[in-house]
UniProtKB/TrEMBL annotation:
Residues 6-186 form the 3-hydroxyacyl-CoA dehydrogenase NAD binding domain. Its EC number is 1.1.1.45. Keywords: Cytoplasm, NAD, Oxidoreductase, Phosphoprotein. This is L-gulonate 3-dehydrogenase. It is found in: Cytoplasm. The keyword Transport does not apply. One of its GO terms (molecular function) is L-gulonate 3-dehydrogenase activity. It comes from the Eukaryota. Belongs to the 3-hydroxyacyl-CoA dehydrogenase family.
Amino acid sequence: MAGKGKVGIIGSGLIGRSFSMLFASVGYTVVLYDNVPTQIENALKETEKELKALEAKGLLRGKLNASQQFALISGTTDIKVLVKDAIFIQECIPERLDWKQALYKQLDEVVEEQTILSSSTSTFLPSLFSKDLKHQSNVLVSHPVNPPYYVPLVEVVPAPWTKPEVVQKTRAIMEEIGQKPVVLSREIEGFVLNRIQYAILNETWRLVDSGIVDVKDVDSVMSDGLGMRYAFLGPLETAHLNAEGMTNYFERYTNTMYAVSQTMGPTPKMEGPTAVEIAKQLEVMVPLDKLAERRNYRDNCLTQLSILKKKLNE
């Protein structure tokens, strides 16, 4: 059952637990590392509970049952136990550059030559925490979308010194565990997903700030409009289909798009009265004590959407 080899996961929060489940779903032996023993115990309990809940709903990924998958996952507070014989390590600690730099320095001392060191960071360029390492050519970013078990995209981002074969192997591993990797040719601030997400958030801010629409309506534009088609097609293919091909789209809309874009104004800094107002409206839509309930709704929607996409694409 556990013939695929060993994968290490660092950090036992939501992202770490999700990755543990993804690797176990295809038969990897998974060791979950945290420096707080109670964190490990809680993470293992939560993981077992989630695997069984997914199985009960018929949503469990992979061919192994929930008990078989959970049997592949163990925990440790010893970094040497974590790295021994690991082919791949996915780091999922909080977004603090000083913490990541300290951790990778620690890993660099004990990790084996063949082990790929992969970070879940959504913020930091891989060069920032790998530049002084002996094993720097084995370090890269594999940035998932939250929650990774329900959203398959992973951005694979190499540092300038990451070996091409490490990038290729990481892509293959991500595909093997059922994710959808996209590989960046080089590191860039914000990677790709957040650069696009920030462009959307910046314009939604401007529209609310200038009183054109409220928070509920601007979100509806995405969830009931753009998002419905973007769930199946990207913005470029959408444009290609909305005209007689992309050349025709450019002929029709280039001038309009440019003129409208010129009116969008400078990049806003999201603070001050508008930040207070947006937060206030969102707390009416989803009160803070209902966030967990709404996240469950989101995860269920994403799961059902994944099933539908898989069915339609078969």
